[in-house]
């Protein structure tokens, strides 16, 4: 097992703009870290630089205690699993897994013992005599993982290993990869563009955008306290609701924001200090709130005057509804706001048909606030 440390790591292809802009990251021995980000953000390039398949243009890569920038791929103690399995078609499962061990000069009895152990971990024992074409996609990916395990690497690198599998197999393989990490306790770095894989697999997630790290943290830190609009919008489905507004008043523990349609929403954010600076009256801001935190209320009626008033209610018109069985997602238009707001509504909760007038409750403690640069104001709760 080994730690992996990146200091100011840069990558240029040709003399063009860098595709990796000075990445600093420390991955602990035995940790499972997921690199996630949109297509082209540089996550595969960085993984390939750690593997030694791409040169490092600047900065320092350490694997364990050793600077590894110039170390040959085979000497780095790393095994990589690719999206495209890359199995030898003319060899059996056993031969595929034994190949690198034979090349490394292990004796036949040792090779047999190492392959059998890996096959048992991955439940491949009954398939050892088959050729890749006689296996399902999930089984082929298990062989590819088995081929990596037999070499007992210090670090495992996975490059979108589940992208070619159908949805139910992906869920099953996710569970198997988690189990594998618990069993082997080897450092693992896993690249994906799928935020569900990132949330479910990673002990820590690194969110990349345009060759830079946007934020590093545990899945729940990133989900509950995104540092900026990019991370807030990238994790979670449906995407977090973003509602533009203007600061009407800022107190130490809340900020009152007026939306384009006139409604006033109080947000439990620290009105001053923090990365986003001070919220000032007149500032343009964005409220962020997740669909599961918005509650649907019926449109205002006369009798409401007899009830205690509720804060942070905004008039809305239902656009369309997606019924998912256990819950429905109601999309509703707020006056003066371009994007519809999504509301996750339990199947036994209030239902609303397209065209219905409703109100949305945006609880102050659940609203996040972002400044014009997209940086989050610290939360007050
Ligand atoms: N061999 C290459 N030569 C020149 N540019 C490259 C090369 N490989 C990748 N790039 C560029 O580097 C950037 C990062 O690519 P990379 O494949 O690392 O992104 P990614 O985040 O893994 O995307 P995806 O999820 O689509 O694989 C992209 O702009 C890509 O076009």
UniProtKB/TrEMBL annotation:
Key words, A-Z: ATP-binding, Cell membrane, Membrane, Nucleotide-binding, Transport
Domain called ABC transporter: residue spans: 4-235
A Pfam short name: TOBE_2
Assigned GO CC terms: ATP-binding cassette (ABC) transporter complex, substrate-binding subunit-containing; maltose transport complex
SUPFAM superfamilies according to UniProt: MOP-like, P-loop containing nucleoside triphosphate hydrolases
SMART domains linked to this entry: AAA
CDD domains assigned: ABC_MalK_N
Gene3D superfamilies: 2.40.50.100, Nucleic acid-binding proteins (2.40.50.140), P-loop containing nucleotide triphosphate hydrolases (3.40.50.300)
UniProt-recorded Gene Ontology molecular function terms: ABC-type maltose transporter activity; ATP binding; ATP hydrolysis activity
Descriptive protein name: sn-glycerol-3-phosphate ABC transporter ATP-binding protein UgpC
Species for this entry: Pseudoduganella aquatica
